[in-house]
Specification:
The protein has 154 residues and is an alpha+beta fold. The protein is 53% helix and 18% strand. It has seven helices and six strands. The strands form two sheets. It has a three-stranded mixed sheet with strand order 1-3-2. Strand 5 and strand 6 form a beta hairpin.
């Protein structure tokens, strides 16, 4: 089983998940509806399915009501909260350290290693930069995000 299928099995034990023709009908890659479950577009690449599924699962845990109208500041905050927790789950700093230890420094290499799409990894590292700064220390490792992911072990 690939990491998407493992995640799908884990999430399906808590909530109903359906793959369907979603994007062509709605323009959405995924959606969570309270009491109904998660629907994700079945025509995506596996890495994008994985990140979309996790984000929608985080909506089931941390958001309230219909937040599709992203012009509302409150809805936007809830969207960003779900994404933040998806980043933390799928791109934990420990996994970035592991990838670097294996010699992976390019974003596309790390995305392949983590089995997430490149845009999700880029957004996750931007989240970490906005939270900790471009260069920060984590568990004795100096992490630096630029055009590559660089670390220095202390």
């Amino acid at each position: 089983m690939n990491s998407y299928e493992v995640l799908l099995d884990e999430i399906c034990s808590n909530i109903n998940v359906v793959e369907a023709e979603l994007f062509n009908a709605t323009g959405l890659l995924g959606v969570y509806k309270e009491g109904k479950g998660i629907i994700i577009d079945k025509n995506m690449e596996t890495d994008l399915k994985k990140t979309t599924l996790m984000e929608e699962y985080m909506h089931s845990k941390y958001t309230v009501g219909n937040i599709l109208d992203q012009t509302s500041i409150e809805n936007r905050k809830q969207e960003l909260l779900a994404r933040k927790y998806a980043y933390i789950e799928l791109v934990p700093l420990e996994a970035l350290i592991e990838a670097y230890s294996l010699g992976l420094t390019q974003y596309y290499e790390v995305a392949d290693f983590l089995e997430v799409d490149i845009e999700f990894l880029w957004n996750a590292t931007n989240y970490y930069k906005s939270t900790y700064g471009t260069m920060f220390q984590y568990k004795g490792v100096l992490i630096y995000f630029s055009n590559t992911i660089t670390m220095e072990f202390k």
